[in-house]
Write a structure and sequence with these properties.
The chain is an all-beta fold. Helix content is about 0%, strand content about 30%. The protein has one domain. Bound molecules: zinc ion (ZN). The site of zinc ion has 8 residues, from loops.
Length: about 60
Amino acid sequence: MAARQTPVPVTAAPEPAKCPTCKGSGEVSRTVRVGRKRRAVGEQAGLCLTCLGSGEALTD
Ligand SMILES: [Zn+2]
């Protein structure tokens, strides 16, 4: 007599909310500007100040 196993409910693991600013990457790109005309010369990756690089939204 086989014991009937209770089916395991498929539930998504609770993931931490991603930071809306960096979308979970922990980094944000910011435009680098130079000169009086503020000419954009490129982008630079920087630490996301919203989540401080963790990539997770603060739930506080
Ligand atoms: Zn962030």
